Structures are given as C-alpha cells and as structure tokens.
Amino acid sequence: MRQVLEDMSLELADLLEQEKDPGLGNGGLGRLAACFLDSLATLAMPAMGQGIRYEFGIFHQEIRDGRQIEQPDEWLQFGNPWEIARIEDAVTVGFGGTIEERPDKNGRLIARWTPSHQVVGVPYDTPIVGYGNDTVNTLRLWRARASEEFDLAVFNDGDYRKAVEEKAISESISKVLYPNDHSYEGKVLRLKQQYFFCRCAIHDIVLRYLRNNVTFDEFPDKVAIQLNDTHPVIAVVELMRVFLDDHGMAWDRAWDIVHRTFGYTNHTLLTEALERWPVSMFETFLPRHLSIMYEINRRFLRQVIMRWPNDNADRQRRMSLIEEGKEKQVRMANLAVVASHKVNGVAALHSELVRTELLKDFAELWPERFTNKTNGVTPRRWLLQSNPRLARAITDRIGPGWITDLAQLDKLVPLADDIEFRALFRRIKRENKVALVRHLESTFPLGAAKVRFNVDSIFDVQIKRLHEYKRQLLKAMHIIALYQRLKRDPQAPLVPRTVIFGGKAAPGYAMAKLHIKLINDIAEVINNDPEVGDRLKVYFVPNYRVSMAERLFPASDLSEQISTAGKEASGTGNMKFQMNGALTIGTLDGANVEIREEVGDENFFLFGLTAPEVATLRSSYNPLEYIERSEDLKGVIDLIASGFFSPEQHDLYKPIVDTLTKNDTYLLCADFDAYVACQDRVAKAYLDEEAWARMCILNVARSGKFSSDRTIQEYADEIWKVVPVPVR
Ligand code: 8GP
Fold first, then answer.
1. Which residue's CA lies nearest to atom 9 of ligand 1?
2. Which CATH superfamily is domain 1-53+79-198 in?
3. Considering only CA atoms, which residue is closest to atom 7 of ligand 1?
C-alpha cells in the first residue's frame, strides 16, 4: 500500500488522516463495545454487534472564545468504503396501531398487532477482522428508510408535499445520535430508535436461528444476547412478541427461552441515567409491547409477594416494572433484571454497589443472577497501533506474544530495573510527547501553536466526557492553586507541568459547558503570564475523539482518574493510560481499585474519600467547613468568584462558586486538600526520573488484566457459554 501510494507521490499517513472517526457513540460505553468486537474476532468467537447507523454521529466540538460550539458530524459526507449495504436483508418495523385478540384453533387467544405506520430497516455490515487469525465477524448497523408501499400509497393520494415530508419523518429515525452521556432523555424519537434497531436485530437473530433449526428448543443454547445497558432492553419484549404472536408459543415456554437467552450489563449507578419511559408513550407507539410488559410485571409481582408474603406494599412498589405517580413510567432497568439470567457491573466495586444498593431488592430475590465483569480495552488499538514505538520496544524484549495474550507483559517486570530499558522508555515517551505537540500545533494554528509547550514538563492529562462527577473542576482548581503559589512567590520551586484536558459536554448540560469555559479562561491567563513562563501550561484539546485519544495516551505522564468515589462505574481511559506507561492519580473508584491492586500501592497516587466514607459524610456534609479550614481552597474559590478569569463578566462563574459553597454534590471541597497534597507527591516523584521510569514500566508490565480479551473470555465462559469457532 505504502509503495503504491509513493509511486503516486502520496503518503499513507496523510491518506489515513483523511478518514473521519465513526463517532457512533458518546463515550466509554460505546468505545467498550468497539473493544469487545475486536476481542471477539481475535478470540474467534462467533459474535455480531447490532446497532444504529447514525447519519450524524457525536457532534463535532469547536472552541470559540473558550466556549463549546457544536457542529454536525457529517462523517458520511464522502462515503464510507468499509460498509456493505445488505438490501436483501431489510426488515419492516411497525409503530402505533391496534391490537385484536382472536382464538386460535385450540381456543387460545392470539394477539394480532396491526401497526398504523411502518418503516424499513436496512442493514449495513462492517467487517470486524480478528488479529492474526482468519475470523471476520460483522458489525451490523441499521438505517431507517421509508417503505416502498408507504411511498406508493401516500404519493398516489396526490399530496406530494405531505408525502415527501412523511418520508423524511420515517428516515429521521436513524438520523442522529443523542449526544447525552449519563443522562436520560424521554424523547419519542429516542424510543423509536431503540425499538427500531431491536426489532431489526431480533428479526435477524431469529431468522438466522431458523436457517438451521426447526423448533426453538435449542434457542438459548445457540443464541446469547447481551444487553449493553438499558437502551436495547425493549428487545426482550420484542422476542416475547415474536414467540407469542408470530410463532404461537405458550407464555411459559416463551419466557423460559427469553430468560435463558438474555444477559444485562449495567454501566452506571447515576440514577439520572436510568431509563424510564412514560407508559403513555408505549400506549401510542408500542401498544402490543406495553400489554406484554404488563403481563411480565403481573407474573413477576406475584413472585415478589410469594417470596415476601408479610412485607407491606413498599417492596412491591420499589420492584415493580411500572413506577406509579402523576405520570406512570416503565423502569427499563427493572425489566432488564427480571428478564435476564445474569446481571453484571463493569468493575468489582461497581458490581458490588449494583448488588447492595442500586438493585438490592432484586439481588435478595435472585442472588445467583448478580456477577462482575471488569472492563478491559483492546491492546491492538490502544498499544500496538497507537504507540508503535513502545510496542516495538516491548516486542524486541519479550516477543510478540503479548499482542494476543496481554498477561505476557509481566515479562517486563525485571526490565524495570534495567537502566538501558528505562532510558529507552524515557526516550520513547519524549518522542511521543514531541509528536503530539507537533500534531496539536499544526492542527490548531490559533490555539495550540500559541501555547509553547514544554515537552520536559509533566504531561498531566484528563480526557473524558465532561461531567460534574468526573470532577474536571477539581483539576482546574488544582491549577489555580499552583498558579497562586507562583504568584505569591515567583521563585517558588515548581516542577513544570502541562495540563491537557479534552472532552465533550452534552449540549444541554450548562454546568459542564461552563466548566469548559472556565478551563479555557484559566489557560488564557496562565499561558500568557510571563512570570509563569514554561513552568505551567494549560490546554483544552478541541473535539476529543478516538483518533485524538490515540495520540494523547502514548504522550501522557499522569492519568487523572479523580471521580467522586462510588460514581465512576469502571473507566477504561484509566487502563489505556496505564498500558502506555502513564502513572495514575486517582480515587478508589471503578477500575482504579483493581489497577492499584495490580500495580501495587507504591506505583499509584491515591487520594480522597472512599465510597463508604462518601456515603457516611453525605448526610452531614457542609463544604463551608472545609473552605474555612483550607487557605488554598479558600484562595481558589475567591479568585474564581472575584471575576479574575472572566474580566468581561465578573459574575460569569457564580453558578460554579454557588455549587462549590452550597451544593457541592460531588464533594470537591472535601477532597481538595488531599488532592493537592497528592499532586505535590507526584511532582516530587517526577524529579527522580529513574524512579519515575521504573514505576511507569511496572505499570505497563502489570496491565495484562485490563485486556478486553480477558473480559470477553469471562463473558464467554460464565454468561454466554460460547467457545471459539476458528475458521481453520
Ligand atoms: C460508562 C461508565 O461511566 C464508565 O465508567 C465505564 O467505563 C463505561 O460505561 C463502560 O462500561 N457508562 C456510561 O457511559 C453510561 O452509563 N451511560 C449512560 C447512558 C447509560
């Protein structure tokens, strides 16, 4: 390829740069699914991904005047050569309409759903190629088209304008990804998106099964469906509907098969992210599904009563699939648990909290259902491809086995004490930093090019979606504290630092967007203060995405994983940093706990309250007590409040100051001093470059657990009962 392009005076690297990221997810949840597909193919597992082929993926983020501006992501503008439209596999999807019940020949009532309108799902297949084997799996994404019969009918009515309009409405279903991460939005179009792709996927799965089977007896042995959070949970009801209405199956048998087929993965404890659809919406768009859900609920509540005959109605109210109230709602997480034979969280701590808090009642009823599957990331993308220098160095020393068996990285442990290998590691890290800076400077001539980065400083990096629980604001406050130290005493010793942020805020999340503005305003002041020089730099990378992440992880020294304990389900960026030889500063949250266990306490910068401490503190928490006690903290908040960073509008950051002082839900004030003190330990450690390199190498060496190959093997063994099917 390289040769052919050279003959045409083109560079492969330049060509690869042209390709747009398929940004078909929001953050960690979607990216995890992509890593899983890579691992499934590499492990030769017969598996398929199902989803929506959004015409517009996650918005493109621009930063203007320090603020986030959203632009449409036209990723299909120049076509997409990696997909194949399978027009012959199109599926019709109905909405609305009426249900009739008629007795069948045995006198049993069979429901007949006649939808009031239909759209067509057309699958687009992207091949997913295994590493070093002959497996090619499929990612099947569905696009919504108006149905041809529909076209004919409305166009013949003579109202051309209306017909075109309705066609556009049908096709709007797969138009755009909802850009919310961790927040629930009860929009009709979103419910339609969910049903649309679940209907298509279930149709596809059943059809494929029936190619080789006559009865459904073996369905759960041949098919496993994993629900990636609650967004596809309607698939449970759709499979029930297909069994009951299309195949005349009896309820108990249908339910038994469904139950043995589905597994459910929970990805967050934040209650604002838990999906609850208004019953009225189901009545309008999915009336048959609503009646099936009511029956599932009726039978389920009978079980609850039998198990706890003497409990008052409280438990039933908590566990019911239907939340009573002014507006009745269907609780999709409850439905997922009732329907699935296994329920898992995504890191040990998270799974424990799912079991003992979020879904406590259900875990009491069905303890055997609840398990953990700690997340992982694919080392092919996140080390081999993104960090070729380090990958080569590793392969030179221990051979290429690590690429498909990441546990082999532990062979690097002795090399942490090898002075030559440490020198090599440091050289590679520096080269990666230089390459990152070059890229940023050429991509952002008006932004990064003006910063004058110092590649010998600590590259201190926080890249993830903007969310209050992830506490980008805490990092920003640390920067202000360092700045005030320098201003108090310009000669103060300060280990040079470059703080890099990246991440998108949901367009409707005003507070998160204000945090972006504050970070950029802080950067403006600090980067242009001659007294600071190159000892402290701050940069917010616009439009953080996978292709940018691939350049950032290899160039990082310090990984910021500073969420309020108990809030980050797992994190996967934390694993990518570790694999690329960055050290973590973090709380005991999500997979940080397990990363620390692997690398050892002495190779991890721990600070902050633990999840149980957070829970205890909550009831009595008053941020003012912490502010009074800490001069640093008070100084930081006063400076923000003074309008120092927003001279054009002095009260711009009042919402942030008010939150910190009155409504500090994520306990920034409580953790601030510990965080700053821990950062001082980081800075001190960085000064001893030999010891630092040693720690970094040990982090890489002990990242084997966090391969998504390990995670997928666990899902395969313990939930899906699936074994590899090698092509040869
Ligand atoms: C994310 C978690 O926040 C993150 O810790 C974890 O690593 C990742 O999932 C993969 O498991 N969760 C979500 O993105 C999420 O729950 N989104 C809400 C819309 C459900």
1. 29
2. Glycogen Phosphorylase B; (3.40.50.2000)
3. 571
The encoded tokens of residue 674 equal 């510990």
Q: pLDDT, tens digit, for every residue of 658-686?
A: 999 999 999 999 999 999 999 999 999 99
Closest C-alpha among 163, 165, 171, 115 to residue 143: 171
Q: At what angle do helices 234-241 and 251-261 cross, to 10 degrees?
A: 140
Q: Which residues contact 60 (CB under 8 A, 6 or more apart)?
A: 70, 71, 72, 73, 543
| 226/262 Cα distance (integer angstroms) | 6
- pTM recorded for the entire structure: 0.97
Tell me which of 167, 182, 267, 497 is the catalytic residue: 267
CA gap 182, 467 in Å, rounded: 9
Provide φ and ψ at 278, rounded to 5°: -60, 135
Six-digit token string for 602 = 């002495």
Residues in the chain: 728
What is the second-level CATH architecture of the domain 379-712?
A: 3-Layer(aba) Sandwich (3.40)
98 classed as catalytic: no
Backbone angles phi, psi at 138, to 5 degrees: -130, 135
CATH 3.40.50.2000 domain range(s) in the chain: 1-53+79-198, 213-373, 379-712
470 flagged as catalytic: yes
Active-site option among 576, 694, 705, 710: 576
Strand partners, 64: 67
Residue 464 bears catalytic tag: yes
96: left (phi over 0), alpha (psi -120 to 50) or beta: left
Read off the pLDDT of residues 681-715 as tens digits, 9 standing for 90 and up. 999 999 999 999 999 999 999 999 999 999 999 99
- DSSP label at residue 708: H
The one catalytic residue in 31, 167, 231, 465 is: 465
β-pair partners for 51: 141
**What is the rounded distance in angstroms from the CA atom of residue 116 to the CA atom of residue 92?**
13
Amino acid making up residue 280: S
Residue 103 phi, psi dihedral angles, 5° rounding:
-70, 140
Q: Which residues line ligand 1 (CB under 6 A)?
A: 27-29, 32, 181-182, 229, 267-268, 273, 346, 375, 568-572, 590
The topology (CATH level 3) of 213-373 is: Rossmann fold (3.40.50)
Quick one: tokens of 77?
């503008």
The verdict on whether 187 is a catalytic residue reads: no
Encoding tokens for residue 393? Answer: 């160095």
In 399-509, which ranges are continuous DSSP H helix? 419-443, 472-488
